[in-house]
Design brief:
single chain, mainly alpha, 5 helices
Length: 159
């Protein structure tokens, strides 16, 4: 069983690099650049990003890391040791990032995608979206990024 737990921690950490990288890129590069564009152009660009978010490379990392983190988290209840605490923390951090995405960012993306850029209310909605979405994105980026070395530490510790 311990070999499977180590493998699951490694897989969760490696697959977690994909969403963590995307979130960090959006936090540090994409959203600041979109904020400098005229509202209509920024909105249209984000809508294009959203339409491409469901491609396999991101989805495999996104759901794969969440699934393996869930496996690790469940297994920690059967491994009462320091390993369990470390692995459980890494898995919980990644799952928190996943939940922020599903519960907070995705619904805002869907609302943005329904908004017509030429609507007179669009600039205000876009400004609100940027502020709220970016705050949640920074939080999920932090959780996803910290989860990786914590999971790798657990994998190296061995249960």
């Amino acid at each position: 069983m311990s070999v499977l737990l180590v493998i699951a921690a490694w897989i969760a950490a490696v697959l977690g690099l994909v969403p963590a990288g995307v979130y960090l890129h959006f936090a540090g590069t994409v959203m600041p650049r979109l904020a400098r564009l005229p509202a209509m152009e920024g909105m249209l660009t984000m809508q294009r990003f959203n339409s491409r978010a469901l491609l396999p490379p991101f989805m495999i990392g996104f759901f794969g890391a969440a699934l393996t983190s869930l496996v690790v988290l469940v297994c920690t209840f059967f491994v009462p040791s320091r390993w369990g605490w470390v692995a459980g923390t890494g898995a919980a951090l990644h799952l928190a990032s996943f939940l922020i995405t599903v519960v907070y960012n995705v619904p805002r993306n869907e609302a943005l995608d329904r908004l017509e850029p030429r609507d007179p209310r669009a600039p205000a909605a876009w400004a609100q979206y940027q502020r709220e979405w970016s705050q949640a994105n920074r939080l999920r980026a932090a959780f996803a990024t910290v989860a990786i070395p914590v999971l790798l530490t657990a994998a190296l510790m061995r249960p």
